[in-house]
Amino acid sequence: MGLRPIGELVRPGLGELQPYRVPVHPGVIKLDANENTYDFPEQVLRDIFGAVDAQTFVRYPDPDAEDLRAALSDYTGVPAARISVGNGSDELIQNLMLTFAAGGKVVIATPTFGMYAIHAVIAGAEPVVLPRNADFAVDPEAVIAAAARPGVRMVVLCSPNNPTGNTIPPEVTAEILDRTGTVVVLDEAYYEFCGETAVSLLDRNPHLVLLRTFSKAFGLAGLRVGYMLAGREVTEAVGRVKQPFNVNAFSQLAATRLLKWRPVFERCIGEIRRSREELLAGLRRVPGVTAYPSRANFILFHTSLPGPRVYEGLLERRVLVRLVDGPDLPGCLRVSVGRPDENAAFLEALEETIVSRR
Ligand SMILES: Cc1ncc(COP(=O)(O)O)c(C=O)c1O
Question: Both 269 and 256 in a single domain?
Fold first, then answer.
């Protein structure tokens, strides 16, 4: 028998999947990934490196991340038995898809974070797109109706939502939970920038899953640490698909130590929140720009020029933002809130781009 073309051997369904591509442009002002762009605090860095010893790297990491989960229990008020950690919340999204959605359908309220649909397809689940309202609000009736459709096992919501920046009011989440039979995932990756959470709904709702990350407010995007708060049954089920050593030893140690330094990060988060409002006001002063209010550390905006022209114009001026232009967000871009100097450079580059019309 002759060799079969690789394309014929690739699992059906993966053929059309476009990998998540992240443009790399060294040396630019990087405001495209909603990281915390402040320098990592020196004293926290020293504390973390002071805790590394000659055994830290030679042993496999703790598969249960006991220390980190205990520290997270202290931070969130959720018992450690109902906390799981992942190699970024990306891994947890994938594990949730593998556990619940594979072979079925998952409702995703869009426009939103693109990885939900990508992980759905990777897991062999069918993403069902549920458009948000024109003001980006989630319509609970529409979610409840979509979740009741045959084959749907999970619903994914995001609050504050990437890239639109608005939150889902807790009473809307509560209503969706009361009248939906599926697992409901609420991604709170940007929770620290708004302070609004559905944690208080966890005890009464065993189908609710909250996702959080250290990549945004806590400045640990490079170390890949996310976590999930859920009921015992969901935690146990997702534990079945988890890789045993998913979060490496250094990342576990760094995230655990970091939580002891929360006041340092809270000051920085406060500065980012203040800068966000200044950036919003600055954007609104640029001719032809519509900028949407945000509860996160990024702002969605639209200009009178085509989105790709604005993106390229900014890049020529060494500022990288995210082009989110598409059928559901025509002409839109998303900029992360950076340090004041970065925000000022971005605004200047945007004005120049729009005034020079290229
Ligand atoms: C809403 C949302 N969820 C999850 C993630 C991924 O976070 P992590 O770095 O923990 O994988 C992001 C990153 O941009 C995000 O915007």
Answer: no
R_g (Cα) of the chain, nearest Å: 21
Same domain for 349 and 247: no
pTM comes to 0.97
Residues contacting ligand 1 via CB (< 6 Å): 34, 88-90, 113, 158, 162, 187, 189, 213, 215, 221, 226
Structure tokens at 152: 């749907």
For the chain, 358 residues long, the average pLDDT of each consecutive 10-residue run is: 89 85 92 98 98 96 98 98 98 98 97 97 97 97 98 98 97 97 98 98 97 98 98 98 97 98 97 98 96 98 95 97 95 98 98 82
How does DSSP assign 37-65, residue by residue?
-SPPPHHHHHHHHHH--TTTTTSPPPTT-
Q: Which domain holds residue 233?
A: 53-260
Q: Are 309 and 254 contained in the same domain?
A: no
Q: What's the chain's length in residues?
A: 358
